[in-house]
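Support request, please re-run this one:
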Amino acid sequence: MQKLKRVPTLRSVVPGLFITALGLGLLLAPWLWWPLALLMGSYGTFVLGGLFHGQKQTLLLRMRKALAIIILHLSYGLGQWAGLLHFGLGVSGIKSQTALSR
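Re-run finished. Output below.
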């Protein structure tokens, strides 16, 4: 967002949309459970598909790979929202701990 100074592609917006859908699904879960179930079911299918792609791997390695995929997507989506709030809207909750040297 900050670096390119142009509208991002759909591919780069998807993690932020995933986090938004996950948050809305969690908020609506007490009343409407099926949107969250649909989202998590489709994401689970995606992660499982990624686990069986490639060479033969041990079960432990496949479990670590699944955890890495989930952490990667959550981190990217949360970072995208943090960047949008910080650079796009000017909201900054992070204070710099060090002074600039120049």
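The helical segments are 10-28, 34-51, 59-88. Residues 5 and 88 are 11 Å apart (CA to CA).
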